Amino acid sequence: MNRFALASLLLVSLAPLGCGTEADLAAGDEPAEASETSDAGDGKADGFLGATAAAVPRVMTRSASGSSIVVGFDRAVTAEELPLASIKVEVVRLQGTSFRKSNVLQRAALSADRKTLTMTLTEPLRSGTAYYTRGTWKRCVTLPLIGRRCTSFRAEFGEVVVTRSAATVVNGSVLAPVTVSSARPRRRSLDGESQVSAVAIDGPLAAPPVAAAGPGTFRVRSMTPIEESEANTRDLRSIQVVFEGGTIDCAAIPPGLDGFRLYSRSPDLGAQQLMYQDPTAPNPSDFFYKGDLRCQEQENRLIFTTPGRLFGDVQYMVQAHVASKQGDQLDIEKAFYTERPGIRVSATRVENHYGTHDTCDSDGFFGSDNYCDVYVTSGIATGQTTQTARIPDTGDFSGMRYFPTDATNGARPLQPVKVLFQQDAPIGVALLAWLYAGAPAVAVEWRLLHASLQIFGFFGVLIVGVAHHLFARFTGRVTARSALTHPVLALLLAALALRVAGTWGGVPAAVLAGAALQALGFLVFSGWVWRCLDPPPLGPLRRHLAASSGWIAAACLCETFLRWRAVNAGLAVPPLDSMRAVHSMALLGGVIGWVSGVLLRAGPMFLPRWNVPASLARALPWMLGLGAALAAAGEWAGVGRAARLGELVVLGSVAAMLIAGGVLRQAGGMLPMVSRSAPESRIFRLAVASLGAAVVGAAAGVGTAWGGGEAHLLTDAVRHLVAVGFLTAVAIAMTFRLIPVLEGRELPWPQLRAVALWALVAGVVLRTAEILLGLGWAGMAPAVALSGLFVLAAVLCAGANLLGAVVRRN
Known about the structure:
The protein is 38% helix and 22% strand. It is of the alpha+beta class. The chain starts with a helix and ends with a helix.
């Protein structure tokens, strides 16, 4: 048990730092990036109270040769402005059916005059490869009475794409020498401006590897679109490759991915496309349809029909392995580029969230039912230009009600939609996304990792470990490891390692493997639960806890299927609605089911007169299952009403159990453990209070959803009240309470209980304060971002006592 508990406490120490919001999870894409633009004039920027900052350096020159890329700036830069440790040269390559981003930078160095940055790579420059040069730019100012302050921005030195002269690979030999024709920085540089001039490259390149075969003249005559062509339409319907010097042998083309494939090379690892003819999905109506390949021997050509629209401003690679009827083997690797799209931002609806009954032309002390006349001024800034729009163009929206209480009369649909910003040409810069504290938004993969670490890594592993001790006391047997203890622990730890490594390295297949191992581990654990609780008097508890364990296993199985489908479709993550359904199954049906099941049996540990009616105890697992299924189905189908109702059913059932069991009854004025451990009882009371607040919030969410509105912040606050305020608080209180029981010794540092209590209070209060942001309290934003640190401190307090107790025993 100690190993399970230590592992879970260490893992959850990572999870609170990523506390995301419902709005975060709706983002879906990696965050956009932005670069500072240089200031005009004398190179100095006016700052607050006379502070000055140097202008952002511009990238003036680029060159490359051998295994080096060199960037020249318009002025000298300091080590403080451009930390060399932050420099990266990233490439995106296809490995099997997964895309992998890697940093090929070996070292970076500034010249003596500090105007030239040389990036030495770990490999020679390869033709057809895009190198994305990245770094961090720090803009520093000196403030009176405060001192030196720096702000970090993401820097981009351009995308260098290496091309070669048209050489033909025949039977493993290159007929024409591979030479470098140009390298093109396609994206914006450090100063935010797009640089498109060609850069001369000297020296040979490493040729792409090809398979060896016999002599012959079989070669590619032409390709449509033309190799290395730019600005190809995103609606490209087919790729055509025509051969000469022999007749193509259609029967010798390998099936599926090995015969012909078209894939993207975008710097955004989560936005890639992999297309080929999948023998299991040959029809365009098939869910996994990835394209169609036709081989025409008479015309001596291959035609690949794409399954849909291509991404914009992306390099696409065509790879094929073909043979001629004369016995020649030919490997093809050619690239082309799609056009850079423009951007349009539109408003579809206006909602009135201003005030309540005492606003909107109020004419009395107690308010009135008067309506509001509303108009909206909006604007979007892109870093290069700003466009504003008035909605409506003239006049106002009269008769607007308060949207949260009257969604029908509190909103005005815009038909046609109102275009706020439009630019047909590429804007050349990215829009900026921010979290509460002003830091760049976290990629969706990391937000999903945060949820899985908290649910499966912390609660799941802790459940498995604690079960060994609790079941021994429930059945009157000796505490002992079973034959499955170490295998299950190995499966769960390996699964968590794969999840973290896969997210860190951008390998979706590793995250898929982690979900599969977790599913296997929790399935085995579910069977063990059923076998251990075999005494007849424990029948209801046996069914309750086995079903709760099954919910966790089912959630992992569902995630395994979703991630397998996403990997096969070339996606980094599954649809977020379906992932919310997975987390609802595990949290509402699994973790809450386990906590409630244990409290049914172990409630007297906290309450001396604990007595839940037998009818309620028997109905509880059915109510939890109904609520979890309803919430998961609602999330999966995008039906907010069903999801919110399912959450309320689960939370209301647990609250009813606590009230019926006696949580509000007095017993001599105190809980039995209060006389021994007041901080632990206070942590438990915090958990009960958080659950009560979550029930109220869930009820409000149901009312809002069934009234036609949306309450993303409220829903997110309820989830964190449950996960942090209720479940984490119960876990910490149980840890402090069970250490003396299970280890037979006092807590090593009992004073940390008070620290954990107040850290939890601060974390819960700040995390749920996000609701105030929806009411216009923007100043609360940085405080919300700090909540994870307080929860982390509380977990570390419990973890330190557990670790200290284990070390002292050993």
